[in-house]
Design goal:
Helix 2 crosses helix 7, helix 4 packs parallel to helix 5 and helix 5 runs parallel beside helix 6. A seven-stranded mixed β-sheet has the order 14-15-16-13-12-18-19, sandwiched between helices. The protein has a six-stranded mixed β-sheet with strand order 9-8-7-10-11-21, sandwiched between helices. Strand 1 and strand 2 form a beta hairpin. The longest helix has 19 residues. By secondary structure, the protein is an alpha/beta fold. It is 39% helix and 20% strand. The structure holds NADPH dihydro-nicotinamide-adenine-dinucleotide phosphate (NDP). The site of NADPH dihydro-nicotinamide-adenine-dinucleotide phosphate has 30 residues, from helix 8, strand 10 and helix 9. Involved in the biosynthesis of the osmoprotectant glycine betaine. Catalyzes the irreversible oxidation of betaine aldehyde to the corresponding acid. Pathway: Amine and polyamine biosynthesis; betaine biosynthesis via choline pathway; betaine from betaine aldehyde: step 1/1. One of its GO terms (biological process) is glycine betaine biosynthetic process from choline.
């Protein structure tokens, strides 16, 4: 098996196995080949991870922030040195083309480690003058944090959670998605090599039940999960018993609005990036593309021509633009939505079925698909599909499109293409979404906070905002006179 790790879990600085745990396999979605066989964590493994993380956190938090930052910076450098090898592993585990994983996965993880390395050295509180006496605040870690990942950006998600958590002096137990369990183990090895004390970053494997056991563990101080709304709700409910704070990065059905005055070629690029990168398996995708009626025909013509050029193929070939979906189950889910779109009366402009890719008869490939004539109430317009499926809508006025863009339970992201600078800012201010782009789509530099409004989540990852979610403020009142009591 080409990607078999030495053992399933990484605890207290070393690989750890417990064959009592249920066996599961990781498959290469382009071929169906088993690339690794692992065991889910047993209750004993979870206890071991919590104990190791508790010990590790005490040691780690005693270091000055600048020293913690040095470790994270070294880890970023190692990740960059191993980018090719990490990218190949991510391509095997997710099926995403190597052309993407080389630039978007471990690379963004390294950027994130670097960014929070710098912030680690700059964690600070306030001084509050009380006229003689004073108070100050300390920014303190939370303790042992749990990170739970989705399968679309495995090493990026692990890094986006680990970097701010560790920068603040916490320890982390990370549970990757059962579908993509491998790269988080590499991140753990890299962090150890960079000098992280043992126990500070641990990886335990398993499905939702392992995640649920971690969330309810009394030794846990914080949970951050990337996943679906249903999972987010379950995690929040379980965390409520311990009043455990949660960061939830959940799903979306985001609007991308194209006004008639926009640079149409740029808008088409935004729509393509926001629907077909990673075969559409991106939470912030702008899957509801609203195009002002007067340019709708021209926009769709350009779109069809560009989509026809997308090259599906061998994910390991650098010339391939789009690989398979992550699993057969995800492919079936997406194909069911393609059938549903036709049944609901949407017009199929291109795609609409599974794709045949020579040499990959068992691959989970789906054609990039565009529907027009989509009505707001259709299920393909309301539900997250998480595949290469774009819906195009017409609109006539700014007021109308804002109302329709906001008429969703989700609020993860939104985009606006226009050459009118005032309109761009005016519209974005009215969109109920956590992350917005003007004349761009799906760019998520680590400096910019990322997260959702409404049912798309709570809290923010990246940017200085993430520090708020992995630390707590302690207020200290200092009496400079003599303490007095009224009786
Ligand atoms: P899931 O919600 O199915 O799973 C997310 C993670 O939670 C997995 O590791 C899963 O384990 C685990 N899990 C499942 N049930 C529980 C539970 N009760 N308690 C604790 N953990 C649990 O999402 P997917 O992995 O299918 O990912 C796709 C979803 O993720 C989409 O909705 C997408 O929008 C969202 N997403 C959001 C992003 C964001 O930043 N906002 C980014 C990427 C994806 P396992 O899968 O191993 O069973």
């Amino acid at each position: 098996m080409p990607a078999q790790p030495p053992a399933s879990h990484f605890i207290d600085g070393v690989f750890h196995e417990d064959v009592e745990g249920a066996t599961f396999e990781s498959l290469y979605p382009a071929t169906g080949q088993v690339i690794a066989r692992l065991h889910a964590a047993t209750p004993a493994v979870i206890e071991m991870a919590v104990a190791a993380a508790t010990r590790g956190q005490a040691e780690w938090t005693a270091l000055p922030g600048a020293e913690r930052g040095k470790v994270l910076r070294r880890a970023a450098a190692i990740m960059r040195e191993r980018n090719r090898e990490l990218s190949e592993l991510e391509t095997l585990d997710t099926g995403k083309p190597i052309a993407e994983t080389l630039v978007a996965d471990a690379a963004s993880g390294a950027d994130c480690l670097d960014y929070f390395a710098a912030l680690a050295a700059d964690l600070r509180g306030d001084h509050i003058d009380l006229g003689g006496s004073f108070a100050y605040t300390r920014r303190e870690p939370l303790g042992v944090c749990v990170g739970i990942g989705a399968w679309n950006y495995p090493i990026q998600i692990a890094s986006w959670k680990a970097a701010p958590a560790l920068a603040c002096g916490n320890a982390m137990i990370f549970k990757p998605s059962e579908t993509t369990p491998l790269s988080a183990l590499r991140l753990a090895e890299i962090l150890m090599e960079a000098g992280l004390p043992k126990g500070v970053f641990n990886v335990v494997q398993g499905a939702g039940a392992v995640g649920a056991a971690l969330v309810s563990h009394p030794g846990i101080a914080k949970v951050s999960v990337t996943g679906s709304v249903a999972t987010g709700a379950r995690v929040m409910q379980a965390a409520s018993a311990g009043i455990t704070p949660v960061t939830l990065e959940l799903g979306g059905k985001s609007p991308l609005i194209v006004f008639a005055d926009a640079d149409l070629d740029a808008a088409v690029s935004g729509a393509i990036l926001g629907n077909f990168y990673s075969a559409g398996q991106i939470c912030s995708n702008g899957t509801r593309v609203f195009v002002e009626r007067s340019v709708r025909g021209a926009f769709v013509d350009k779109l069809r021509a560009r989509v026809a050029r997308i090259r599906l193929g061998d994910p390991m070939a650098e010339t391939t633009d789009m690989g398979p979906l992550v699993s057969r189950a995800q492919m079936e889910r997406v194909l069911a939505y393609l059938r549903l779109g036709r049944e609901e009366g949407a017009v199929l402009e291109c795609g609409g079925a599974a794709a045949e890719v020579p040499g990959f008869p068992n691959g989970c490939f789906v054609q990039p698909t565009v529907f027009t004539g989509v009505a707001d109430e259709m299920r393909i317009a309301r539900e997250e599909i998480f595949g290469p499926v774009m819906s195009v809508f017409d609109f006539d006025t700014e007021e109308e499109v804002i109302a329709r863009a906001n008429a969703t339970e989700f609020g993860l992201a939104a985009g606006v293409f226009t050459r009118d600078i005032q309109r761009g800012h005016r519209v974005v201010a009215k969109l109920k979404a956590g992350t917005c782009w003007i004349n761009a789509y799906n760019l998520t530099p680590v400096e910019m906070p990322f997260g959702g409004a409404k049912r798309s989540g709570i809290g923010r990852e990246n940017g200085r905002a993430a520090i708020e979610h992995y630390s707590q403020v302690k207020s200290v009142y200092v009496e400079m006179g003599k303490a007095e009591a009224p009786y």
